[in-house]
Specification:
Rossmann fold, 7-stranded parallel β-sheet, alpha/beta, 46% helix, 15% strand, single chain
């Protein structure tokens, strides 16, 4: 009965859902002729019985990349299919075209999923984190295809929400064969919601297994030369609406002490690129966008990262990273700060980080991250670290050691999935 009610609700909201997926938007790659894939019409699949990995968007695809590469190394003859919901995720997945195919995830109508399954015939379905759609899970499970949630995380807030609607969670969870959790507290929350302990394994966070290639390091060094090899540079990564003004205030105060400092600001959502650039000018700060491809002269105060998939390069070119999504209270709950940590950067963060408590607390404990409550605290810490290079370098080294100590999730995940992957 509950599934029937969900299907009726989905029919009502599907026009809005499809409009949001298909509409053109500045900074968003177009879907063009591939829109039919959202309805399960998949063409030109060259592989048979692939491992189906669903990664939603850019962040999940990046996080899954080390695992996808490791699966291909261990099972070189095994086909892999990546699905994403967004076009930006598709753009990121295309970087793995030499080892995996990409298609768009069918929308959560049973008939769309059945059509997809009939064409693709996947060996198993691996879902990154918690992208759990009732019709999809029901249809896939009913077809006899094993389903595993990998890199699973369940915040305390989300667990409370599911608890209020236990029957909805039961509808979803009954179709899951494995839940591979990032941390023990995630595992405990899943277990408290009724998932049997034998289905749950703690494998660690795949995001700790981020690898920084020499090519990426070189890209960062090249960008640093363009921005100013000797300029003090900090980055505000993945900012949300309401944070940019605070970041600009902090940079204004920093400039009073260190006039040649440069801010790299990277809005989380592409549709905000123009407004963030405009806000910079309102604060009296001269801005140059990455896509403008013009020289960043000494009178430029802000470099706007208005591209997708280049966060690691931009962080690599900076000295200090402020991880945004952490100044907007209960709206976001922070972003993953492991990329700057893997690059050995000292990290500043706002007071809201409930989605990344474990990682944040580890970094704080190891004196690799400082929580800043305001623009003044951000600027004061920037000034301190720019004036004390030994403290800055030590902080970055501490961050890197936290990442190294926690790596190994890729191996643990593949071991946990061995039976599923090896199944004929």
């Amino acid at each position: 009965m509950l599934l029937v009610l969900y299907r009726l609700l989905l029919i009502l909201v599907s026009p809005i859902l499809l409009w949001s997926l298909l509409r053109s938007k500045k900074g968003k790659p177009p879907i063009n002729f591939r829109w039919k894939e959202y309805f399960g019409t998949i063409s030109n699949i060259s592989s048979i019985n692939p491992i189906w990995i669903h990664t939603v968007s850019v962040g999940e695809t990046i996080a899954a990349t080390p695992l996808i590469r490791a699966i291909k190394r261990q099972y070189p003859n095994q086909a892999i299919l990546i699905t994403t919901t967004t076009t930006t995720g598709a753009e990121q997945a295309e970087k793995l075209a030499n080892i995996a195919e990409h298609r768009y995830m069918p929308v959560d109508f049973s008939w769309c999923v059945r059509r997809f399954l009939k064409i693709v015939q996947p060996k198993c379905m691996l879902i990154m984190e918690t992208e759990l759609w009732p019709n999809t899970l029901h249809t896939v499970s009913k077809s006899g295809i094993p389903i595993a949630v990998i890199n699973a995380r369940l915040s305390e807030r989300s667990a409370h929400r599911y608890k209020k609607f236990q029957s909805v969670f039961d509808l979803i969870s009954q179709n899951l064969d494995q839940v591979l959790c990032q941390h023990s507290d995630d595992a405990q929350r899943f277990n408290n919601l009724g998932i049997a302990s034998e289905k749950i394994t703690v494998t660690g966070s795949l995001k700790f297994d981020v690898s920084v290639s020499s090519a990426l390091t070189q890209q960062g060094e090249h960008l640093r030369e363009k921005l100013g090899a000797k300029r003090p540079i900090w980055i505000a990564a993945s900012t949300h609406e309401g944070e940019d003004g605070i970041i600009y205030q902090a940079h204004q105060k920093l400039l009073e002490e260190i006039p040649d400092a440069l801010l790299i600001i990277v809005p989380r959502h592409p549709e905000r690129f123009a407004s963030v650039a405009g806000l910079s000018s309102q604060h009296g700060l001269k801005v140059v966008s990455r896509t403008e491809n013009i020289p960043v002269t000494s009178d430029v105060h802000v470099y706007l990262g208005d591209t997708m998939g280049e966060m690691l390069t931009l962080i690599s070119a900076s000295d200090i990273c402020f991880m945004a999504g952490s100044l907007v209270g209960e709206k976001v709950g922070g972003h993953n700060m492991l990329e700057p940590a893997a690059l050995g950067k000292p990290i500043l963060n706002g007071p809201s980080f409930f989605n990344f408590k474990d990682i944040t607390n580890q970094l704080i404990q190891e004196q690799a991250l400082v929580i800043c409550q305001s623009a003044d605290e951000i600027s004061n810490n920037l000034i301190r670290l720019f004036k004390d290079s030994s403290a800055r370098i030590q902080m970055g080294s501490n961050a890197y050691q936290v990442v190294k100590r926690n790596q190994g999730a890729v191996t643990k995940t593949i071991d946990a999935l061995a039976t599923t992957i090896a199944t004929k």
